[in-house]
Write a structure and sequence with these properties.
Blueprint: H1 2-21, H2 37-54, E1 72-74, E2 87-89, E3 132-135, H3 144-148, E4 153-157, E5 171-172, H4 182-188, E6 196-198, H5 213-224, E7 233-239, H6 243-255, E8 263-270, H7 273-287, E9 291-298, H8 309-325, E10 329-332, H9 359-365
Parallel strand pairs: 3-4, 4-5, 6-7, 7-8, 8-9, 9-10
Antiparallel strand pairs: 1-2
Helix pairs in contact: 5-6, 7-8
Length: 366
């Protein structure tokens, strides 16, 4: 009996030792660069929830790169007579000073409201000349109607293919964020779903859609370019405002033989409004296509002091005047229509604690 008891004690001790050896490992969340990740993860989770609720079938999201070698892209833009229709050549790119790109930005999460898979777009492909848009991670929240009613607002996107159930007359712009959204994008973005589409989100950033220009070309050719035949207006991938962004975009255009691209998008984070103007002008002079900025804020990611509220107002005034007075600048989406800016200077907030527009929001949206 004593021997049996001793055996049991030894067996229990062995089990305890194994449990200690195989237990959880401590992880420091700050050891990994998670730039922008929360914005995408939250949005994609909302998409996944919506898929599960609707029992939507999914198709393969695999995409094999098919890089090409042509250095010429013919613009398909057919906008106002004041905007030229031209071709892009790789020799036209020039180097310009640039501001630091975001290195640790993440945005607020989606609300519990689930976007509809069948939103009703505005009655036509026009935003009635309105140049401002809502970068909207808030789902079907009731206060969307308040923001949509502002006189300068004509567009909305959600960092995903999904759009709110009621767009309140805005142009909803679905996005192919990256590889993980391919099946959602295919299921949703069909003829009649919307009139505009956005390409990949910061493909030059490892923490974002993270793909080579060749892979970006393959995604564009397979999933976005065919939408032109369904009447869609195609807006390029949006890179960060640094040299890697310029280089990625130049390679993408150089390799994207036969691609139809109607406008060029970019993101801007910096504290100098003139740098915003210079960067946008550089992109326009390079590609001779209308320009969209799909994220921007008065935010330093270089370790310097952040702007005061008054400085943010001055930044906004300069940028807004430039956007509104520049014929080739088509749409601008300021960053901050969310309750938690998670790393971006809170002076850029566009959403008050009572879910109404801030004073800065009125400066942009009217």
């Amino acid at each position: 009996m004593a021997a049996l008891k001793l055996f049991n004690v030894l067996a229990l001790a062995s089990v305890a030792l194994l449990a200690l050896q195989s237990g959880p490992t401590s992880v420091n969340a700050l050891t990994t660069n998670r730039a922008h990740v929360a914005r995408y993860v939250a949005g994609h989770e909302a998409v996944a929830v919506a898929k599960r609720k609707r029992d939507t079938s999914s198709s393969s999201g695999s995409c094999k790169p098919k890089p090409t070698t042509s250095a010429t892209l013919t613009s398909s833009y057919g906008g106002d007579s004041g905007t030229p229709t031209s071709s892009w050549s790789s020799s036209s790119a020039v180097d310009v000073p640039y501001t630091p790109a975001p290195s640790s930005l993440s945005s607020s999460t989606y609300s519990s409201a689930t976007p509809s898979a069948t939103p009703t777009p505005a009655s036509s492909g026009s935003s009635n000349g309105k140049k401002w848009g809502l970068a909207w991670p808030n789902g079907d929240t009731s206060y969307l109607s308040t923001f949509a009613a502002r006189p300068n607002v004509g567009f909305l996107y959600t960092w995903s293919p999904y759009l709110p159930t009621n767009l309140y007359g805005l142009q909803g712009v679905p996005m192919l964020w990256g590889y993980d959204q391919v099946s959602d994008f295919q299921n949703l973005v069909v003829a009649g779903y919307a009139n505009y589409v956005l390409g990949m989100n910061e493909p030059n950033e490892p923490s974002q859609s993270n793909m080579s220009p060749s892979d970006g070309v393959a995604l564009w050719q397979q999933y976005i370019n065919p939408l032109k035949d369904h009447g869609y207006y195609l807006v390029s991938p949006a890179c960060t405002n640094d040299q890697t962004g310029l280089d990625w975009m130049a390679s993408f255009f150089q390799e994207c033989s036969g691609c139809q691209i109607d406008a060029v998008a970019f993101h801007f984070y910096g504290t100098d409004a003139q740098a915003f103007i210079s960067y946008a002008t550089q992109l326009y002079n390079t590609y001779k296509l209308p320009i969209w900025v799909t994220e921007f804020a008065d935010q330093s990611f270089s370790g310097g002091a952040q702007a005061t509220q008054d400085e943010v107002y001055a930044f906004a005034s300069t940028v807004a005047n430039f956007v509104d007075s520049t014929s080739w600048f088509e749409v601008a989406f300021p960053f901050g229509v969310m309750s938690d800016l998670q790393g971006v200077n809170t002076a850029n907030s566009l959403l008050s604690s009572d879910d109404t527009p801030t004073s800065l929001a009125y400066d942009y949206f009217g």
